[in-house]
Amino acid sequence: MFQKRTAYYRSSCQIEVTYTRQKSSQSTDARRFNFLYHGAGMVRNTMSDVPVDYKTIYNKIMNLDSTIRFVTIIDSEGKLLYGGQREGLTSHLKPDYQKQSLRHAIDAWELRNRFSGSIGQGKYALAEYEKIKRITIPLGRKHLIYLTTEIEADHNSIIANILKIRDSTTS
Hints:
With 171 residues, the protein is an alpha+beta fold. 28% of the residues lie in helices and 40% in strands.
């Protein structure tokens, strides 16, 4: 397992996160991963001409409930716009698997959109695993809010509150 050790801004457009993995009782393997986001987390919403402050959305979501582990806002190309993991938590996925999980969420959402003409727009998707819950919520037409929670999280309350945050931010 990887544990998030540090996170800091290297510039206005880059976050550097250092993960460490215990290799033996005396050594650790440190790896650095860089995540990019647009500017200072501010871009225009695709559904309207209102600027969306992704950092504010991220902070509001993380402050909703202590069972929220990870929140990221991504575009349909997989570019991280803003996000992070709750301080002090250990990730269940290796960084490469995290990227694959995000790609899977994007692909699954695009597949759901193919049926939206018949059944309407998707509101959210929830997947429950043995260790976490994964929630995906659209943010405009080309962005997603992707988050994970502890298994005991009240996902109905979290989803309802995120929808309120999203709607109040993008309307």
